[in-house]
Amino acid sequence: MLKKCLPLLLLCTAPVFAKPVLTVYTYDSFAADWGPGPKIKKAFEADCNCELKLVALEDGVSLLNRLRMEGKNSKADVVLGWITIC
């Protein structure tokens, strides 16, 4: 009986051992291969032992619209952006 239940038990406990995921909404220029995002992602993941998921959006308007549409159901843990005031 135990041999039959063990695989099921292991399957149920798998999410406990999974790395936490931190979702960051940001600009595409930050997350691009040539931007600072990939290097920061690598260093952050090594430091916090988690997965950093960068969600790249075109610009500030797209970022804001996505947050407004998702509301309280947003998957973002962090929103990274900047505003230039002239």
From TrEMBL:
Q: Which UniProt keywords apply?
A: Signal
The biological process GO terms on file are: thiamine transport
- InterPro entries on file: ThiB-like (IPR005948)
Q: Which domain of life is it from?
A: Bacteria
GO molecular function: any one?
thiamine binding
Signal peptide residues are 1-18
What Gene3D superfamilies is this protein classified in?
Periplasmic binding protein-like II
Tell me the NCBIfam families matching this sequence.
sfuA (TIGR01254)
Q: What is this protein called?
A: Thiamine transporter substrate binding subunit
Q: What is the lineage of its organism?
A: Bacteria, Pseudomonadati, Pseudomonadota, Gammaproteobacteria, Enterobacterales
Gene from which the chain derives: tbpA_1
